[in-house]
Every structure is written in C-alpha cells, then in structure tokens.
C-alpha cells in the first residue's frame, strides 16, 4: 500500500500497549518472538511499531525479541452492488462509486501469540 | 511509561490539574534525566527450545475496556461528554468559549483540556467561569481512555452536565483512541484546505459530526466546501457537516440543536 505517513507518536502508545499486555499475560520471563496482526487499513505504520518496539521493550522480557508482523490486506463488501472486493486504500470506495461498505478485513490490530523460552 | 525513552512509571509525564484561575502559577516542566544505565550485554541463547503461547488479543483492548467503563459511568449519570478533535489552531478553544457562554445557565457545562504543555487553554476556559481540568500529555500526542478517566475523577461533573473534552491538536493519533466519550466531533477550518478528509481518513471516519469552522473567511480563501463534504461522505456516507464561525456566530444554532439531540440520545433510558 502506498503510505506516505511518517510514523507518529500513536505508534509509540500502541507499542506500549502491546508490551504491557504481553507482560501482564505472561509475566517478565524471556520472550523469543512476538506475532502481531496489523491490518493494512488499521492506520498503524508497522515500521514505526518496529522502531518503537526496540525502545519500549528495554527492561522487559521482550527485550531483543523478534517481531513477526502479519499485514492482512483489506477486503470490503459493497451494500449497493453486493460485491466483495479487495481494498488497499484508506479512502474506501467501491468501483460503483458507493461508500456504503462493510469492511471485512484489514482493520486488525491484534497480538496473536508469543514464543517464550 | 515515559513516551520518550520507555522508562519509568506511567504517571511521570501525564499531569492532570484542576486550574482554579489565571493567577495560579503553572509549575515548570518536569526535568527528565535520561542517564539511567541499562545493562545490554545479557547473552541470549538462541538454541533454546521455545513454546508458543496464543494470546489472540486486541492491542487496544485495555484502552477500549476503560473507555466502555467510562461510557457506562457517564450514561448512568446522564452526563454527555463531547470529544473535540482538530488540527492545531482550527478553533476548538474559541468554539468552546463561545458555546459555553451561549449555554449560560441552561445546563452545567465543564471542560477538560488536553495539550502537550501549558495551561493556556484551561485558563481561557476558566475566564468564562466554568470548572476546567487541564491534562498535559508531555510527549504524548493524544488523550487516551485512562487519561480521560483521571480527568473526569478530578473534574467531578454533576449528574446531567455537559462535559467538553478538547483533545490534543492533531488529526492523526486521537483517531485511534476511544475515550469513552458520548460523541466525537471533528473540526476542520476553511484555512486548512478542503483535502484534509482525504489526507486524514481515520479521523474523519470516526467522527459523529464534522464542524467546518471559520466560514467567515470563505470569501478570502480558496476552499471548495462541496469537495470537502464529498470527501467526508466517501469515508462516512451519513455523517453531517455543519458550517460555523466560532468568532462571528454563523451556524451555532444548528450546533446547539445537534448537542441537545445528542445529549438526549446518550442518556440511559
Ligand atoms: N476568522 C476566524 N478565526 C477563528 C475562528 N475560530 C477561531 N479562530 C482563530 O483561530 C485561532 C486559533 O483558535 P483556537 O481556538 O486557539 O484553536 P485551537 O483549535 O483551540 O488550537 P490548539 O488548542 O492550539 O490546537 C485564534 O486566533 C482564533 O481567534 C473563526 O470562526 N473565524
Ligand atoms: Mg485549544
Ligand atoms: Zn459497489
């Protein structure tokens, strides 16, 4: 997806939420890898998450952990022409001109799993 | 956690203050020393077997839980909280000053101000005689549900009141954070260019209402109102855009009417 957004500070807050949520669930033990799902329509820039993770993870069991990020592409259903189609632009429009869409995929912001040592 | 370096406790940067009056001196910004030593030479043994733990959890789950609790707490007490978001300088504080003056004694109105630094906006609101809490986010560029929760505890709004929350001036980050507000209002002003909805789709997609401010300046700037509305409707077909001027007063009746309808809708039946 063509993104010209420079990573902004909400990626920092999001990365903090990721680290906090994982530490809360599994404690402070060493983590080898973290798997995230960050949809292409989520508004979050994955490069910024990677950058912030290196900073935020320091002092926790996640320090040095590998980040695996799945980026599910966008899919939508148009309620006007009743068609399902791929969507990779945050301006959401069907080819028929309708904006009345159900977003089926691409907005994910999830922690999928962690690999603990 | 410090948003600059990831060290320290959460409360180190966000400050929540009840601003009593213009004579109240604002303390100087916190000095933050970054010379804590980290020991980075712990050896990782990458041959160790690892075990996968499934978490399957929304990243914003904690924020969204807090927001849901706030929304419920407000509805139970018939309090309406309006989250106002815009670029820096679109006129949030000016609109608030005008709106709360117009409301007068008809409804108790209180304000929570969010800014990275300074109490300037809170002091402008305070000058209208209303109770106001300033949240300074430090390096943070948006309010989140936890900050609003703390702000509301400090503000202590009475049952049935109207609370305006002025978010940090920013069209990017506040879009992702549900505060538990009753409604989200996005302000765009005619000096910013009609393409803003296309450039900041996430913000406009979550809006319950868009205010087009500074319409008194329309004769002097090149701003295509129809194009702007069209771009907004591509993101959200049903959202309303009200043209207003916070300084000259255009369109404010419609804004008050929207506030009244929204207040009626958000109260628990
Ligand atoms: N002409 C005109 N100027 C306006 C209007 N509303 C606000 N302004 C001016 O715009 C400038 C910024 O207004 P503020 O109310 O401080 O904007 P803000 O959105 O609160 O700004 P931040 O809190 O810094 O993000 C001030 O000089 C206001 O007088 C309007 O309707 N018309
Ligand atoms: Mg302001
Ligand atoms: Zn269609």
Automatic annotation (TrEMBL), chain B:
Compositionally biased residues, Basic and acidic residues: 32-44
Classification via Pfam families: cobW
Alphabetized UniProt keyword annotations: GTP-binding, Hydrolase, Metal-binding, Nickel, Nucleotide-binding, Zinc
This protein's record includes keyword Metal-binding: yes
Coiled coil: none
Keyword GTP-binding part of the UniProt annotation: yes
Region annotation (Disordered) ranges: 24-44
Domain of life, per lineage: Bacteria
InterPro entries in UniProt: CobW/HypB/UreG_nucleotide-bd, Hyd_mat_HypB, P-loop_NTPase
GO biological process: protein maturation
Residue ranges constituting the CobW/HypB/UreG nucleotide-binding domain according to the UniProt record: 82-242
Gene Ontology molecular-function annotations: GTP binding; GTPase activity; nickel cation binding; zinc ion binding
Recorded family membership: Belongs to the SIMIBI class G3E GTPase family. HypB/HupM subfamily.
Alphabetical list of NCBIfam families matching this protein: hypB
Protein name, UniProt field: Hydrogenase accessory protein HypB
Gene name of this polypeptide: hypB
